[in-house]
From TrEMBL:
Transmembrane region(s): none
Alphabetized GO MF terms: protein kinase inhibitor activity
Protein's recorded name: PBP family phospholipid-binding protein
Keywords: Protein kinase inhibitor
Highest taxon above the source species: Bacteria
Pfam families per UniProt: PBP (PF01161)
UniProt xrefs under PANTHER family: PEBP (PHOSPHATIDYLETHANOLAMINE-BINDING PROTEIN) FAMILY PROTEIN (PTHR30289:SF1), UNCHARACTERIZED PROTEIN YBCL-RELATED (PTHR30289)
Gene3D superfamilies per record: PEBP-like (3.90.280.10)
């Protein structure tokens, strides 16, 4: 079987509830995965909006998710010490920042990409952004799974 990724907060290609938006409570939506490859030693996650006006916009990047984990709960940025590491998003913050498409835009897609990695950690400088983290993660990716939600600012 292949790596799968789901969210209890929204179904594939369905709207993401407002509480997970940057203009709402800005909570990280719960995610769960299964069927990771046997050689998985950690996971990395990126949240991207490919419909942003100036190209793909990255809302969240997390690396060093332990291989034994099968989920990230709501508000994952409150995880305990020695937990996964957040990287600077395109808002300039090392955290999750939810959907915030421009008013009047049609619904944007938000793609949550989970990569199963063959290394236990990624060694990336603190100042690095999501792009640097994801490029390094791609070098070690065994398999990737996605779940996509939509959001429109009303």
């Amino acid at each position: 079987m292949a790596l799968t990724l789901i969210s209890k907060a929204f179904a594939e290609d369905q709207p993401i509830p407002a509480k997970y938006a940057r203009t709402g409570e800005n909570l990280f939506p719960p995610l769960a995965w299964s069927e990771a490859p046997d050689k998985t030693r950690s996971f990395a996650l990126v949240v991207e909006d490919p419909d942003a006006p100036h190209g793909t916009f990255r809302h969240c990047g997390i690396a060093n998710i332990p291989a034994e984990w099968t989920a990230l709960g709501e508000s994952a940025d409150t995880a305990p010490e020695h937990a996964p590491r957040f990287y600077r998003n395109d808002f300039g913050q090392a955290r999750y920042d939810g959907p915030q498409p421009p008013p009047g835009d049609p619904p944007h897609r938000y793609i949550f990409r989970l990569a199963a990695l063959d290394v236990p950690t990624l060694s990336i400088p603190d100042a690095a952004g999501i792009g640097v983290m994801w490029a390094e993660a791609k070098k070690h990716t065994l398999e990737e799974a996605t779940v996509t939600g939509t959001y429109q600012t009303r």
